[in-house]
Design brief:
Length: 189
């Protein structure tokens, strides 16, 4: 009787050094990038969506994928990509809740907190009113370039598209944003 021994593949060395859920790696990444990611999430999601909740979602993904950080001393682009997708999903959920009238009393009360009162200023309302009609793709590129100051190359890596596509989206987003601002100013007069 022979026993068959199936060969096993060697373990991924990155996972050996940073097992899934390695909190020391995650803590370093959170301390280094957390505040910046939170600010980006607040701008991407807009008013009425808690950026702290979104930040937790981003780092829950990061907790499951700590192997990404071992060989990548600068995980900013990867984190931004996760943040963009988390913010887009939150905006979709908020649109669905508004469409079906599912906003809870808690959501309405949250809008009255001091942090959200800052978002309620006239200038910010006008900016968000001009941003909201943009497609998610244009809005994301616009915010990452104009507000976050990322380069076209970084944005291309984050959103997963060619650099020329980034510049095209940015061009159209700027035009639409400007047009939306002008329309908003016309309605306010």
């Amino acid at each position: 009787m022979t026993t068959s021994v199936s060969p096993t593949l060697p373990a991924d060395p990155r996972r050996a050094r940073a097992p899934q859920g390695d909190l020391t790696v995650l803590k370093r990444v959170y301390e280094e990038h957390g505040p910046w990611i939170r600010a980006t999430l607040a701008r991407l999601a807009g008013p009425g969506i808690d950026p702290d909740d979104l930040l937790h979602e981003v780092f829950l993904v990061a907790l499951r994928r700590t192997d990404v950080f071992v060989d990548n001393p600068e995980p900013r682009a990867w984190l931004y990509g996760v943040a963009v997708r988390v913010a887009q999903a939150a905006r979709r959920r908020a649109r669905v809740r508004r469409f079906f009238g599912l906003e809870s009393a808690e959501d309405i009360a949250d809008a009255l907190t001091p942090e959200h009162a800052v978002h309620a200023s006239d200038a910010k309302r006008r900016v968000y009113a001009a941003l909201n009609p943009l497609s998610e793709k244009k809005r994301t590129v616009f915010i990452l370039f104009e507000l976050e100051g990322l380069s076209g190359e970084e944005i291309a890596q984050i959103v997963g598209c060619p650099l020329k596509t980034v510049w095209t989206r940015l061009h159209h987003a700027r035009r639409e944003f400007q047009r939306n601002l002008q329309r908003g100013a016309g309605h306010a007069a």
